[in-house]
Design a protein that fits this description.
By secondary structure, this protein is an alpha/beta fold. The protein is about 30% helix and about 25% strand. The chain folds into 2 domains: about 180 residues, Rossmann fold (3-Layer(aba) Sandwich); about 90 residues, no CATH class. The chain is built from 10 helices and 13 strands. Helix 3 packs parallel to helix 5 and helix 4 crosses helix 5.
């Protein structure tokens, strides 16, 4: 396939997903705002890394885009067509254009089926079964032809994830959602899978929504990065912008927690240790959702929610009243 032309493939506008959660020990229910006004774009052939702590809404965002969750409101436009309002007859084509690779390679493959049947299943469902296509997919993810007659239990975790990738690519999609696709693998296997994904992207012009919590992996594979906190994107920009001059204090805290492999540098890094965990999403803080853990919080943060804005006009957006890069590194950690 020809290389991607980098035209806009996916546009998400003000996407919201709310769940009703029953109250414990009482009547009624509360509203959990898993996604609370998420907006971003993704070009063909591009990788957007989506990062944040567990419970921030990353996986919910991926599943809502794919249609596995019904959106509460907003728009998801694929190639200019709103997936949330399109007629049923068009949805099958859209589902062919979007595929997913899940986190657990041991649970995402049917243990009763052979590898050939697993990869062939989406082709059969869509009426385009081709034996040669199945064998082509095995080869493109680096598996031997005799793998086709074996079952998932005979493969390692890394090999199973290769099978899951082959299944996702069988219908030649434009977008693949990778939901923590390498987090369950050993570090050396992670590198192999990430390099495979990059190679397939170059060859096939794929766009990736890469959901992860490992910032080192995200930095290696992503072109742009979006940081989520309590159902909202709080910072987004190119990989170099976010990793080089992070503006939001939450992003700065995440980056400061990345292990430093060089012992000579250890202790000279600008480390930020945040207090506490994510606030209860059923009762989020007023104003800025991060203010209860933020070392820059002021009185205005309790009253006014900061917009996701590009103050410098360079495509680097942050949702903070006091967005700015960190000062010079210090030998002592900041504890808040």
């Amino acid at each position: 396939m020809a290389a991607a032309n980098h035209r806009e493939l996916l546009r998400v506008e003000d996407l919201r997903k709310h769940f009703r959660v029953s109250k414990v020990g009482g009547w009624g229910s509360s509203q959990l705002r898993a996604l609370d006004g998420v907006s971003f774009t993704l070009d063909g052939g591009e990788t957007l890394g989506l990062v944040g702590e567990s419970g921030c809404g990353k996986s919910t965002l991926g599943r809502t885009i794919l249609g596995l969750h019904d959106a509460t409101s907003g728009q998801v436009l694929l190639k200019g067509e709103n997936l949330l309002t399109t007629r049923i007859g068009r949805k099958r084509q859209h589902r062919r254009d979007m595929q997913v690779v899940f986190q657990d390679p041991y649970a995402s493959l049917d243990p009763r089926m052979t590898i050939f049947e697993i990869i062939a299943e989406p082709l059969r469902i869509n009426g385009v079964f081709d034996r040669e296509r199945v064998m082509e997919m095995l080869a493109c993810v680096g598996l031997r032809p005799d793998s086709a007659i074996r079952r998932p239990a005979e493969f390692s975790g890394g090999q199973r994830q290769r099978i899951a990738i082959a299944r996702a690519l069988a219908l030649d999609p434009a977008l693949v959602v990778l939901d923590e696709a390498v987090s369950a693998l050993d570090v050396s296997i992670q590198a192999q899978i990430v390099n495979l994904l990059k190679s397939l992207q170059r060859e096939r012009g794929l766009a990736y929504l890469f959901i992860a919590h490992d910032l080192s992996v995200v930095r290696h594979i992503s072109h742009r990065v979006a940081v989520m906190y309590l159902g909202k994107i709080v910072e987004t920009g190119t990989r170099d912008q976010v990793f080089g001059t992070a503006l939001h204090p939450y992003t700065q805290a995440l980056l400061s927690a990345v292990p430093v492999p060089d012992p000579a540098r250890r202790g000279r890094e600008h480390r930020i240790v945040l207090k506490g965990d994510l606030p209860n999403p059923l009762e989020p803080p007023s104003g800025c959702s991060f203010r209860t853990r933020c070392f820059k919080a002021r009185e205005i943060c309790t009253r006014v929610e900061p917009p996701l804005a590009d103050d410098a006009g360079i495509g680097h957006l942050a949702a903070c009243h006091f967005s700015a890069p960190l000062a010079a590194p210090t030998d002592k950690p900041f504890v808040y």
